[in-house]
Amino acid sequence: MKGLLPIVPVLLSLFATVSCDGLLGPDEDRRVGVIAFYQQPVTIGVPDTVQLGERFEVSVLTYGGGCLSEGETKIRVRGLQVDVTPFDIHSGARACTDDLRFFPHQTTVALPTPGLARFLFHGKQEPDGLRITVGRDVYVESRKSLTSINGFGYSDPTPGFTRRPVWWIAAFSEMWMIPIP
Known about the structure:
By secondary structure, this protein is mainly beta. The protein is 8% helix and 48% strand. The strands form 2 sheets. Strands 1, 2, 4, 6, 7, 9, 10, 11 and 12 form a 9-stranded mixed beta sheet that branches. The longest helix is centred in the first third of the chain and has 14 residues, at 7-20. It is elongated, with a radius of gyration of 24 Å. Residues 14-24, 145-162 and 171-181 have low confidence and may be disordered.
């Protein structure tokens, strides 16, 4: 018992250090990514047209500083609506470098239903920290063998349907439609 007595203060101080902030600082914190940063553009990538059931890549760029690193990207498919939420990891440090970092979040998804799919990219905007949603419509084709009827190499199965992609941004319960040239 006398041999263990000198170790007790060391063990108590180690326990106190670990229980407060851990040995290397506070625990990491997962946060919704910043997709709109001051005058930087919102950058998302999704094809105009995809094939039913085939996997394709979706990407969104987040912005952060010295204490952030790229986290996971959460995808939720509900019929023709796809929610994409990028997360970044804050190190928990109190002092961080003041630099702008870019985190490209990429994932793949397959859509189970033909038609016009709506992709909703959820994130935050800075400098005010408000949550925003940026959307993009994608056409999901139901067949692989396409015929050239309208000069673009595919047959449009929906009469009067425009295949021009549209971006839209929703914030503060308002919506702006921005056609892509």
